Amino acid sequence: MKKQLILEDGTIFIGEGFGSDANKTGEVVFNTGMTGYQEILSDPSYCGQIVTLTYPLIGNYGINRDDFESISPAISGLVVKEAAEFPSNWRSELSLDQFLKLKNIPGIAGIDTRKLTRIIRKYGTLKGAICSMNEDADEILERLRALQLRNDQVKQVSTKTPYPSPGRGKRIVLVDFGMKHGILRELNKRDCDVVVVPYHTTAEEILNLSPDGVMLSNGPGDPKDVPEAIEMIRGILGKVPLFGICLGHQLFALASGANTVKMKFGHRGSNHPVKDLKTGKVALTSQNHGYTVEKESIKETRLEVTHIALNDGTIEGLKHLDFPAFTVQYHPEASPGPEDANNLFDKFLQMIEMEKGEGEKLCQSVQI
């Protein structure tokens, strides 16, 4: 069945439809990863977006039960050059087409994804629609140009109620702005006693949980659309060690007095080189973000830049000069992608140990 992908600039791509028959709109972006399409489809940070995968063949190893990053995908649509009809992998349980049908996600294949990617790189992310050939292109185009993209993506994908993921180690409160399961998995692997809380949880409510540390998760959209989270971060800074990833990194910057801006087409892929400014080492990282911390805005804050992207020089890591808090723009949980930065979870726990140790020394000095 033929489908069309219509962009707000008037460009129309005709291809073969697969997955759901639904007509959906969203922000059209591209991801350069060669593998990991299941994790991309289920990453809550893609809420409301139509994702173009630049690798030419997608779906060849199917869909399995283990590689999901969320239970309910929030992606609006998928664009590929070729979708494999008959996957081959010992873990495969569904084809890509079957999965998209199951989750009501439309897909379009057989279009020139290189051309589409060049358009996005030249003009920036564009609003788009995947729809049937029966839809009038001019009417769709008119609606697209008038469409205001939603600003409540975090609310859509965050957990509605707190829940525990028990362990016998450090008590970590994980604030869910659209959390990938890989982050929770890494904390569980280290036997952390995790409590996952909604995005609008207050500083007082978090501190009442007696955390050893607080983690700010990834998530979709503009960080300025989550003012309650910015206020919460201000309320816990200096009171408990903090580690933020992706959207959590941007929210931390805003809470500390910096500014964030929308990027032309963002960073989405599994091979982005990032330099650690302290050691000079370069790590390959997994990334998915459309906003960045503005460099000039750091000067008036108590923040220090710790990492930069080698491709475009944008900020990839921050730390606070007065409080035990650091953040990164990339994804150290590596789902999908390289595991070069996985040790940041250990660094977070070591920071907690150091803070607790200083507290114990202070108590001992008072007793003496």
List the helices and strands and how they pair.
Layout: E1 2-7, E2 12-19, E3 24-31, H1 37-41, E4 49-53, E5 57-58, E6 77-79, E7 82-83, H2 96-102, E8 106-109, H3 113-123, E9 126-132, H4 137-146, H5 153-157, E10 163-165, E11 171-175, H6 181-189, E12 193-197, H7 203-207, E13 213-216, H8 227-236, E14 242-245, H9 247-255, E15 260-276, E16 282-293, E17 303-309, E18 315-320, E19 325-328, H10 344-367
Parallel strand pairs: 3-4, 4-6, 5-7, 6-8, 11-12, 11-13, 13-14, 14-19
Antiparallel strand pairs: 1-2, 1-9, 2-8, 3-9, 10-12, 15-16, 15-17, 17-18, 18-19
Helix pairs in contact: 8-9
GO molecular function: ATP binding; carbamoyl-phosphate synthase (glutamine-hydrolyzing) activity; glutaminase activity
Pathway: Amino-acid biosynthesis; L-arginine biosynthesis; carbamoyl phosphate from bicarbonate: step 1/1; Pyrimidine metabolism; UMP biosynthesis via de novo pathway; (S)-dihydroorotate from bicarbonate: step 1/3
Protein name: Carbamoyl phosphate synthase small chain
